[in-house]
Amino acid sequence: MPARPIPAVLPAAFLTAMLAALPAAARDNIQISGSSTVLPYATIVAELFGENFDHPTPVVEGGGSGAGRKKLCEGVGEGTIDIANSSSRIKQSDIDLCTANGVTGVMEVRFGYDGIVFAALRDQPDFAFTPADWFRALSARVVRDGALAPNTARSWDEVNPAFPRHEILAFIPGTKHGTREVFDHNVLLAGCKETGAYDLYADAVQGDDDAKKKEAETRCLDLRTDGVAVDIDGDYTETLARVRANPAGIGVFGLSFYQSNTDRLRVYTMNGVVPSVDSIASGEYPVSRPLFFYVKLAHMGVIPGLRDYVTFFLSDEVAGPDGPLADYGLVPDPKLHETQALVAAERPMEPLSQ
User: Fold this and answer.
1) What is 125-248's CATH topology?
2) Using CA atoms, how far apart are residues 54 and 207, in angstroms rounded to an integer?
3) Is the entire prediction scored with pTM above 0.90?
4) Most exposed residue of 129, 168, 187, 193, measured as fewest CB within 10 angstroms of its CB?
5) How far apart, in whole angstroms, are the C-alpha atoms of residue 213 and residue 166?
6) Which of the following CATH numbers is that of domain 12-114+290-345: 3.40.190.10, 2.60.40.10, 3.30.1050.10, 3.20.20.370?
7) DSSP 8-class letter at 216
């Protein structure tokens, strides 16, 4: 079969020589890095792949969605990874970095959905949250008497009179996690708009509507720096450890992690909806996000087993409703067959709209 043409910013002859330096003897295992949320799913698939195919078990590492995408875009060759796992969609800045480094064929694979949940130790008080509650608890500034003022709330009953007197302490995902993006957009920004703070921020800006929107969205994500909101840069096991060490704390977790720790944690509703596989699949639960991995197409057919691994991951038997990923907590993608067709065609993604 003739070799698949490789689009390149670097000279084609250079890339051909680089790829020729990738014999199976040099590296015969697939290298994967990225999201800590996707990590357990990818690990399950990697282990099943090693058991069922005549290829070594892929090496899967965490490190965060952004870090994984950056590693994917370092270049082409055996010293670079093949797949980046991500719990947020790739950014145009990532694609630009890939292009600058000669990685011009990247395939986007959406394999399912996950929700982020708010949970505390089982003996802690009950809450029924809205995004507005979380914004009033954690934002640097809140609406008071029709104007923006510094946030001084220390107890949840100051945020919402219906809540018990209970210390505000939140362990939230750090900025390098894909989870932080959905937390920012679906919780903080939504709460900012619900409380009227967004409009106040926008009204304070001189300029056109785009300038007002950009500044308001940025200001809505400014958090308190007095220890009430604590960024967690590690995985969910670190969040759980911090909650156990600080019983008043509420942590932000992935749905699948919570489901594996229901003996320790109680989960809270958001807008009256209990997070579950069903409520996320239906779109009813408001704090959910798609999960992705990104494949370096120049390594397809060069790194042994890469094409088989991607196809296996997306198969009905693995990523479908009755597969092992769903058993672990993945919400299967209702459009999985569309993604399977995209993968079969090895279709590179187009530039994103700015």
Assistant:
1) D-Maltodextrin-Binding Protein; domain 2 (3.40.190)
2) 61
3) no
4) 193
5) 34
6) 3.40.190.10
7) H
